[in-house]
Records
---
Amino acid sequence: MDQDDDQYRWESATVNAINQKNRRKELAQLPNVRLGMMRHRYVVLDRSDAMKDQDLRPNRLFCSIELLKEFIFMYFDSNPTIPNRLNNHTKETYQECEGEASIQTALEMGLQTLKHMPKYSSREMLFVLGCLTTCDPANILQTLKICKENEIRCSVISLSAE
């Protein structure tokens, strides 16, 4: 009986060692993969009058939407561990572009969503803006300070930068 137990332990230890060696080999082949990386991204698309400009054909809004569709597909494809969900805060599938953009309002909406995400995850906001100016209800610097305290990274793609 003792010989059978010893034989079983030896075979089990050998199999474990081989599995560990194979696992190390697999991880060595994937140097750019980060295990356990969770990402939460909030995308804000400008719907102000500036998005009607036709410097991109047919206009900035249409081009931005088409490129965002491609970006979202690639984002989910390259980050398979992220929660696969999209939140749409617009009431219609297409809204007319009017008025001016408010970065502060968008920041506050994103902050309300992202601040509840786990601290170990990456929390990001991406702004796609077509305007040069914004119409914010209060001091945007205070909102940016709160985003920084909550470790929320903000990036801007400006279509009308000078």
Note: The chain has two domains: 1-33, 36-158.
---
Amino acid sequence: RQSTGSKDTGCKKRFVCPNYCGSSFSHNYSLTRHLKYECGQEPRFKCPYCEGLFRRTSNVTQHIRTRHIDCKQYAIDVISNRIVGVIGEQKRSKRK
């Protein structure tokens, strides 16, 4: 049995960025997201713990999970200078 992580791209269609940035994606929605939020855009979100800059808040939270373990996961929008994407601050209902 082959592992599900194997990458056989020989027969699968790739969606290539039309802006010649070198990016390609296995799903059209990923290309659409790339074109809207990433390609040609300056990084907008900053890690609150280091100088890391990212184009998406999800990339900041992933960065914090792997580089700044046990720290609150949020980002700073460098345009508005506001905190965005605070994780873990929402009220959660207790299970009985």
Note: The chain is about 20% helix and 15% strand.
